[in-house]
Write a structure and sequence with these properties.
The complex is a heterodimer. By secondary structure, chain A is an all-alpha fold. Chain A has 4 helices and no strands. In chain A, helix 1 packs antiparallel against helix 2 and helix 2 runs antiparallel to helix 3. Helix content of chain B is about 60%, strand content about 10%. Classes of the chains: A mainly alpha, B mainly alpha.
């Protein structure tokens, strides 16, 4: 019981750290499209680790099953909504700020 | 018909897991609502191979752990770049072809790309995906076609 408790808290704290890193990314990254990647960290690993930590707290119960469902629904809906806002931004005429240095020129063209 | 039957079974299994109260009355409500939803789904024509892709489940069990591992690796990479004071990113747009045989496969591929930090699918026209990649490494990883091949094999090559 002790070990599971410790493991659960380590996972929860890691998830919290990834959420904060996602937030830092939102501020540091230069434009709308690259900020989506920062938000992606919070959506995937941040939320995933927090839910996994909660599963360790709940043990083999129906609560864990519900947490698995929450994770599945979150990982299905978050890329869909990310794609929707990215596509909407492009349709509205927002162009991403691309790297124009030499090594990137062929990828960006 | 067998697809509709499996829809009822899966709906009812989900219902049992979510409810947690196993008395004749509530289970009766569960059975009734599952049958009603399955009837609605068949009337709306969404109980087909695209709306209820039950045939993919065995292979998804192998694909999901690989995807989760890819997500974890990509997350750590992007997180390190965000925390790096020099912010070593080089955003770029790249077009890739999806080799999946129908819309369902392409959507799974596009969502897998977006779910992996470092790459976001911004457009999907026909079999061509426009992807915004945060780094040259993320772009190179995408161009190896590893994920594309895995999603294609998920569906099998023959229709």
């Amino acid at each position: 019981m002790e070990t599971i408790d410790i493991a659960s808290w380590v996972v929860l704290m890691l998830g919290a750290i990834f959420c904060v890193i996602g937030g830092i990314g939102l501020h540091r990254l230069p434009d709308f499209f690259s900020r989506l990647h920062g938000a992606g960290i919070t959506d995937t690993l941040g939320a995933g680790l927090i839910l996994f930590g909660l599963m360790l707290q709940a043990g083999l119960t129906l609560i864990t099953v519900k947490l698995v469902f929450i994770l599945a629904i979150l990982w299905l809906t978050s890329p869909t909504s990310t794609h929707a806002i990215a596509k909407a931004a492009r349709l509205a005429g927002l162009e991403p700020k691309l790297d124009t240095s030499d090594d990137a020129s062929e990828g960006a063209s | 018909m067998s697809r509709l039957f499996s829809l009822v079974i899966i709906l009812f299994g989900t219902w049992l897991l979510w409810s947690g109260i196993y008395q004749p009355l509530t289970i009766g409500f569960g059975v009734g609502s599952c049958l009603f939803v399955a009837w609605l789904a068949s009337r709306m024509g969404i109980g087909d191979a695209e709306g209820h892709p039950v045939h993919l489940i065995p292979k998804l069990i192998l694909y999901i752990p690989w995807l989760v591992w890819a997500i974890v690796k990509a997350n750590i990479d992007v997180a390190r770049r965000i925390l790096n004071p020099r912010l070593p990113i080089s955003p770029r747009m790249v077009k890739v072809k999806g080799t999946q045989r129908d819309d369902l496969g392409r959507v799974i591929y596009a969502n897998s790309i977006t779910l992996t930090p470092g790459t976001v699918t911004v457009d999907l026209q026909g079999d061509e995906l426009t992807v915004h990649a945060l780094t040259a490494e993320a772009e190179a990883d995408l161009l190896t076609g590893d994920m594309d091949g895995r999603v294609t094999r998920l569906q099998g090559t023959k229709g």
